[in-house]
């Protein structure tokens, strides 16, 4: 099997890891990295045994695929350049700085019949995959993604930085776009929102609650789904998964608990029988496979086979459309002044 000629544009805090993964694949030749920062670009190139280029246009021709991991504001121009050249393109999330630009890229990829994959990495987290397999159709979803301020992705607010991950997961779990969106957000050290909570209501009646913050003293990425097959509680960081569902007659006749309690002299003695006898409890650790490697392996497979990725331009645009609805719904106020502002219309800059 011949090696694919690939490159990475933007080798900062995230792009350097994409470059390292590609350089380590036996079926990929990393022919170059492009970054305007010469010191960082040269250091990454030398470490990975490839060449540094100052701009994307200077990269070698005849590329099979490219990964774009620049700041969000540069996604549109960089991705357009490669899609117009017919090069399969992987763009880190969010796809672009706003819905209009993201739609432009998605439409361009479709018109050019060119692969466009977007880096919603949590889709490849084995703990999420296990959750999706066990929850049945979701009736209620709760997501929490909080972390300390990292001084990374400061060109966008927490909605496009963190919340968009969970928006994408919610859309993947339900297969629906929300019929309504409510949200609240706050500016901490700015200039964009640093905390946001949102409630999405789906046409099916499913409710999704999402909390995102980059002002938390500790990091947490958790997901809980109440679905037709019970409740799944997942730690997306540690990849621990817990699944509870009613067993035996309780699965079809939950009212049975009243009869059992009435026929028991002291119903309080029944509590130790709930889990294990009436509610099946499953706890396990999802595998430790690397999610970034998995999404890049899918990108490579799509290039070789011509198949569509899990997260194409369409899925990425849908996530951004919901993110924009969240931003529109935010009532942003400042911790510094304590003043309430009007509904936010800000976009990722």
- CATH-derived topology of the domain at 4-122 and 291-311: Rossmann fold
Number of helices: 10
What is the SS-derived class? alpha/beta
Rg over alpha carbons: 23 Å
What does the overall shape look like? elongated
CATH class of the domain at 4-122 and 291-311: Alpha Beta
List segments where confidence is low: pLDDT < 50 over at least 5 consecutive residues: 343-349
Overall residue-averaged pLDDT value: 89
Instruction: List how many beta strands DSSP finds.
Output: 16
Order of SSEs = EHEHEEHEHEHEHEEEEEEHHEHHEE
Q: What is the name of the CATH superfamily of the domain at 4-122 and 291-311? A: NAD(P)-binding Rossmann-like Domain
Strand content: 25-35%
CATH 2nd-level architecture of the domain at 4-122 and 291-311: 3-Layer(aba) Sandwich
Strand order of the largest sheet: 14-13-12-11-7-10-9-8-15-16
Give the CA-CA distance, first to last residue: 42 Å
* Main sheet summary: 10 strands, mixed
Helix proportion range = 25-40%
Fold and architecture overview:
With 349 residues, the chain is of the alpha/beta class. It starts with a strand and ends in a 6-residue tail after the last strand. It is built from ten helices and 16 strands. A ten-stranded mixed beta sheet has the order 14-13-12-11-7-10-9-8-15-16. A six-stranded parallel beta sheet has the order 3-2-1-4-5-6, sandwiched between helices. The protein has a domain at 4-122 and 291-311: NAD(P)-binding Rossmann-like Domain (Rossmann fold, 3-Layer(aba) Sandwich). Helices cover 34% and strands 27% of the residues. Helix 4 (99-111) runs antiparallel to helix 10 (313-329) and helix 6 (158-174) packs across helix 10.
């Amino acid at each position: 099997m011949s090696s694919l000629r690939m490159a990475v544009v933007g080798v900062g805090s995230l792009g350097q890891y994409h470059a390292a993964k590609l350089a380590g694949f036996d079926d990929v030749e990393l022919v170059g990295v492009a970054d305007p920062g010469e010191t960082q670009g040269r250091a990454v190139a030398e470490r990975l045994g490839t060449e540094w280029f100052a701009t994307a246009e200077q990269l070698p021709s005849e590329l099979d695929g490219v990964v774009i991991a620049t700041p969000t504001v540069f996604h549109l121009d960089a991705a357009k350049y490669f899609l117009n050249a017919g090069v399969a393109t992987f763009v880190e999330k969010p796809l672009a700085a706003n819905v209009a630009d993201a739609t432009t890229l998605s439409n361009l990829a479709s018109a050019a019949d060119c692969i466009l994959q977007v880096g919603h990495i949590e889709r490849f987290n084995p703990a999420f995959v296990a959750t999706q397999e066990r929850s049945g159709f979701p009736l209620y979803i709760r997501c929490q993604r909080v972390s300390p301020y990292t001084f990374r992705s400061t060109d966008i607010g927490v909605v496009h930085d963190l919340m968009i991950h969970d928006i994408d997961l919610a859309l993947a779990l339900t297969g629906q776009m929300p019929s309504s969106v409510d949200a609240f957000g706050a500016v901490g050290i700015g200039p964009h929102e640093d905390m946001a909570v949102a409630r999405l209501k789906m046409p099916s009646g499913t409710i999704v609650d999402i909390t995102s913050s980059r002002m938390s003293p500790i990091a947490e990425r958790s997901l809980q789904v109440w679905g037709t097959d019970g409740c799944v509680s997942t730690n997306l960081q540690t990849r621990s998964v817990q699944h509870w569902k009613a067993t035996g007659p309780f699965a079809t006749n939950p009212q049975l608990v009243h009869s059992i309690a009435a026929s028991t002299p002291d119903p309080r003695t029944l509590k130790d029988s709930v889990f294990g006898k009436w509610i099946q409890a499953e706890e396990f650790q999802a595998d430790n496979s690397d999610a970034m490697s998995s999404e890049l392996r899918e990108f490579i497979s799509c290039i070789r086979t011509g198949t569509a990725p899990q997260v194409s331009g369409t899925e990425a645009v849908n996530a951004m459309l919901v993110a924009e609805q969240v931003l529109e719904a935010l009532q942003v106020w400042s911790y510094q002044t304590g003043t309430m502002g009007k509904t936010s219309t800000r976009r990722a800059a």
